[in-house]
Design a protein that fits this description.
heterodimer; A: mainly alpha; about 75% helix; about 0% strand; elongated; B: alpha+beta; four-stranded antiparallel sheet; 5 helices; globular
């Protein structure tokens, strides 16, 4: 059983539905095959091939319009089960009527039956496909559509052979009743599938319609026209319809020439060739289609059929022989139902089932039938104009196949874009609130009077932004005379603004942020007054109030004239932490070197907030003499961020030293983990190279941080990297991913708190690995692709996840593809462990696996393994734990010592 | 004295760390001091400002507020809301049996949290989920 499921690439839980759907396609295509054989043999035997036959194709194209509209109206109002039931019952009823009418082969019934068959038989497989879009997402579809298609192809073959076998000189119409019986079974199958998958069929359409195409209100034609993807798809269907109709008519002409008047011979040849084509298709479908699509992708799958038809048409164009025409038809029939049909059906999957139901009928029935009509009209034209219509028709097929090829190529490229668009909805767009520029002055005046501090602050901020835009030159006190400022102001303003009085009142507001912002606005209109006010505030024995300090920090361009070392020393015993921080920041802005000893004193003091501000201030001096001190300050947690910022201000001169620290396992891990952020902020070529090098470091978090910074740098600066720079590290992470999954699989059933901790740590690392792999892909693939794929992959929505994987599948190539895709393929742990084991040869013995990981570089994972080894007294690991006593990581050393000390005493 | 790995093994069960990576739990564990409590010991008094985060890893504790008493067993954070909000503690915690409490001091814990946005977010997620449960 497992072997059969593996051969069919089926998972056990999928089997019932997939096999039922395959059975439905078997029935649908066998019915189609029988009806087609009969309609052609009845017509060719009684009427023969003349100009009227192509015109029937045109009539089919014209009648398809109303049928499509009725079908879509039903699709919009009823469930897919009701849609299928109504359609199948209508076809059954029609067949019963035709059975009665066709008994005497009246001449008027034959074209009616021909047209009816052309219009309605295509609805039978469409029903199945619409159900399939509800049932399967992209990746599943890629795997399972081959099986579904195989059912259809086998059905087509059986239908063809059955017709050939049953064909006699008369009463062949009885086979229409057989078709009715088969369709009743098909209807039953759809009902069972619906019952088995009621939940899934309910969730699909409603959710997906919003995802992709913007709801049902947009008309399907508008939807197709507005979407380049759907437009190309419609063009593809139209051109392929024209090409295959040309082939079909040519083939019927050849049959009519060869077996003129014999219903039995025509029916037998028709049925036999149809059956044989379906057999070839079935073999291709079963053995090749799925593998082809998984290996080469949908884009290439679309190109095969037009390329083959173009080659076949050359034979017809040069020889005009019966065998060349039959060969062309056989190529068409062999590929159309297998690789080509499956590829085309996959194009619909990213759309979502609701969008698909809406547009598919229009494209399949509309565009394709118009293409049929076009092909038929072209052939009639050629028959009239050209003496040797067969060769001319061969040339027409060549031209149509070439256009088809080009359309398929364009659509293959667009397919990736469609997957992208289906994922873009995952991205959350946030629009930060901002104060609208169009707020009028009256509203702002009112806002300044508000009791709500936030409203007042927003109003002040708005005024500050307006002022900044209005005045190009900053009106700092120190650089311009009041007269010149007044002169500028008088030139720029008609009058003192109406809000100034309110703003001046706010300079005394209890909220220092508001008072400082108000000071900033007010000083522009009364600079001398406020300069005096500030000088007085900073000349006092006690520290200045918060508002002036904030004002100088936030808004003043040259605050140095207000601050002296003497004053600061005088205040420092009285400075509360908030004011101390502001004064330290001001010192940094003044750049007065005589203040440095004060800053050093503060860094060494007990007040950490003041010390952090002092580190920031010291960094602004950019004195090389302080670099060593900044590196030392990376150590303590409290000063780390400030030291980071300080080192960033030194720029490239510290990159070499940072690189050495990164590689030095003796440097505390927490310190090393800060370095990527510093390097990214320095952002020189050497800093970026160092970040790339950091990806290879064994600490998971450290390499993760380096990767995040590289991603950020790339998105900000549009940097381009070569894939080769990252493929080795991705392969390392892929290997580690498999190793971790393998380990998770091995320890799945273990009890105890240590095992629980190890499982959790392993799970965290597995998730990191996936994120790291996506992030690394984002360094050389189109960055948005990797990003949206990651969002899609981690989404709760199954279709998005499937489309994300499909997008990655369509982008990556080579060895990476082979190892990477199973990771994203939502395989079970068991399956992934098997794949990982065969790819990388992991040991089956858990002790050896754990021992191997203990020899690797992930310190925390080592600690967790040591805990498990100790709690379970795993003797095989004791020597590895013993070695860990000398590990570079203090935490690993401590854990190993603890483990050895309790070995033998641990409770199991 | 407990080693870091032992503290992590005890802390991993705690809901406070549901969203925190195990490695980060280890970092927090390194900062926590051990405090053994005997039955009847008061771990913290009501209406006191609390500068420590108390994590009960062994034993049973009774939390009391306005005469209402609720017993809690390990593993539980006894005062996350008041610790993070810096509000005076409305509860009194008394050990019901001998046990062990890990005590995280405000200063190093806040430094760790403020230096690591991911850790901060994990704690925020815990508080949000607790708050949500409280409201639902």
């Amino acid at each position: 059983m497992e072997a059969i499921l593996n051969l069919l690439q089926l998972r056990r839980e999928e089997a019932p539905t997939a096999l039922l759907m395959s059975a439905y396609f078997f029935i649908a295509l066998s019915c189609t095959s029988i009806i087609k054989s009969l309609q052609n043999s009845f017509y060719l035997t009684t009427v023969g091939w003349d100009w009227r036959l192509p015109m029937l194709y045109v009539a089919i194209a014209l009648l398809s319009g109303p049928v499509v509209l009725s079908y879509r109206a039903l699709a919009a109002r009823r469930s897919h089960l009701v849609l299928g039931s109504v359609t199948i019952l209508f076809i059954m009823a029609s067949l019963a009527v035709f059975y009665g009418l066709l008994a005497g082969r009246p001449a008027w019934v034959l074209p009616v039956f021909y047209i009816w068959g052309g219009v309605f038989t295509v609805l039978l497989p469409i029903q199945g496909w619409i159900f399939s879009y509800d049932l399967y997402h992209t990746r599943e579809a890629k795997r399972l559509y081959a099986l579904l298609g195989t059912g259809g192809i086998l059905g087509g073959a059986c239908g063809g052979f059955y017709t050939a076998w049953r064909a006699g000189d008369q009463h062949n119409e009885v086979m229409l009743l057989h078709v009715c019986g088969l369709l009743a079974v098909g209807l039953l199958i759809l009902a069972v599938v619906h019952r088995l998958n009621a939940e899934r069929l309910r969730e699909g359409p409603a959710q997906d319609s919003a995802e992709t195409e913007g709801g049902a209100n947009v008309s399907a034609i508008g939807k197709i026209w507005a979407s380049p993807y759907l437009r190309n798809l419609a063009v593809l269907m139209l051109v392929s319809g024209a090409a295959t109709t040309l082939v079909d008519l040519l083939y019927k002409w050849a049959l009519d020439q060869r077996y003129s008047g014999s219903e039995q011979q025509i029916t037998q040849f028709f049925g036999t060739l149809l059956g044989s084509m379906f057999v070839v298709s079935a073999l291709l479908q079963l053995l090749g289609t799925s593998r082809f699509l998984r290996r080469w992708g949908v884009a290439l799958g679309l190109l095969v059929m037009p390329a083959v038809l173009a080659l076949g048409s050359l034979g017809v164009a040069f020889t005009a022989a019966f065998w060349a025409i039959v060969l062309l038809k056989a190529l068409d029939g062999g590929l159309r139902s297998s690789l080509d049909r499956t590829s085309v059906e996959l194009l619909y999957v990213p759309l979502g089932s609701a969008a698909t139901a809406s547009v598919k009928s229009l494209i399949d029935l509309g565009a394709n039938r118009v293409g049929d009509g076009l092909g038929a009209a072209l052939l009639v034209g050629v028959t009239i104009v050209v003496f040797s219509p067969v060769q001319a028709a061969g040339v027409l097929v060549l031209v149509a196949a070439t256009v088809w090829f080009l359309a398929a190529r364009s659509l293959g490229n667009e397919y990736r874009g469609m997957l992208r668009r289906s994922l873009v909805s995952v991205q959350t767009t946030s629009h930060p609130l901002s104060v609208s520029e169009s707020i009028n002055e009256g509203t702002l005046r009112d806002a300044l009077e508000s009791a709500n501090s936030t409203t007042v602050q927003l109003a002040l901020q708005n005024l500050i932004e307006r002022e900044a835009r209005s005045l190009e030159d900053d009106l700092a006190f120190s650089t311009q005379s009041e007269e010149s400022i007044q002169s500028q102001l008088s030139g720029m303003y008609q009058a003192i603004p109406s809000w100034l009085a309110r703003v001046e009142r706010l300079t005394e507001h209890s909220d220092p942020e508001i008072a400082a912002a108000a000071l900033h606005l007010a000083q522009r209109y009364r600079p001398r007054y406020y300069r005096d006010f500030l000088q007085e505030a900073f000349a006092q024995d006690e520290p200045p109030p918060l508002a002036p300090l904030l004002y100088l920090n936030r808004y003043a361009q040259e605050p140095s004239s207000f601050l002296t070392a003497e004053r600061v020393r005088h205040w420092q015993q009285q400075l509360d932490p908030t004011r101390a921080v502001l004064v330290a920041d001001l010192i940094g802005r003044t750049g007065q070197s005589e203040m440095v000893p004060i800053l050093q004193e503060w860094i060494g003091g007990d007040d950490r907030r003041r010390a952090i501000a002092a580190i920031r201030a010291l960094a602004t001096f950019r004195d090389p003499a302080h670099i060593d001190q900044m590196f030392e300050l990376l150590g303590p947690a409290w000063s780390r961020q400030a030291a980071d910022a300080a080192l960033i201000s030194y720029g490239e001169s510290v990159v070499g030293r940072l690189r050495d620290m990164l590689k030095d396992p003796g440097v505390e891990l927490q310190v090393r983990r800060e370095i990527p952020r510093v390097l990214a902020a320095i952002d020189s070529a050497e800093a970026r190279d160092t970040l790339v090098g950091a990806l290879y470091l064994p600490d998971s978090l450290l390499s993760f941080y380096a990767l995040k910074e590289l991603n950020r740098l790339r998105s900000q600066q549009k940097l381009t990297y070569e894939a080769e720079s990252f493929l080795p590290v991705i392969q390392i992470w892929v290997r580690q991913y498999y190793e971790l999954v393998y380990l998770r699989h091995q320890i799945a059933g273990q009890q105890g708190t240590a095992s629980q901790l190890l499982r959790k740590a392993v799970q965290e690392r597995i998730e990191w690995k996936v994120e790291k792999i996506f992030r690394a892909l984002g360094l050389f693939l189109p960055q948005e692709d990797a990003y949206i794929s990651y969002l899609g992959y981690t989404s709760d929505r199954r279709r998005l996840r499937e489309n994300a994987i499909e997008l990655i599948d369509s982008i990556i190539r080579g060895e990476l593809r082979k190892t990477l895709l199973p990771i994203f393929g939502q395989q079970s742990d068991r399956e992934l462990a098997r794949i990982g084991g065969s790819l990388f040869g992991f040991p089956s013995d858990l002790d050896i696996l754990l021992s191997d990981i203990l020899g690797e570089g992930d310190a925390w994972l080592k600690c967790c393994i040591i805990a498990v080894a100790a709690s379970q007294e795993m003797e095989a690991l004791k020597s590895a734990v013993g070695r860990a006593v000398n590990d570079v990581s203090p935490l690993v050393r401590e854990t190993a010592e603890w483990a050895l000390s309790r070995w033998g005493t641990a409770a199991r | 004295m407990l080693k870091t790995i032992e503290k992590v093994l005890l802390l991993q069960e705690m809901r406070l760390f549901d969203f925190v990576s195990t490695e980060r739990v280890a970092e927090m564990a390194q900062m926590c001091l051990e405090r053994s409590v005997a039955a009847g010991d008061v771990i913290f008094e009501a209406e006191q400002s609390v500068d420590n985060l108390y994590l009960l890893v062994r034993g049973k504790v009774e939390l009391e507020r306005n005469g209402m008493r609720l017993p809690f067993s390990s593993a539980i954070a006894l005062n996350p809301w008041t610790f993070f909000s810096r509000q005076p503690q409305p509860l009194r915690a008394t050990a019901l049996e001998d046990g062990l409490v890990l005590v995280g001091q405000r200063s190093p814990l806040e430094e760790l949290l403020t230096s690591d946005p991911e850790l901060c977010y994990s704690v925020l997620r815990y508080l949000a989920s607790e708050g949500l449960e409280g409201h639902c």
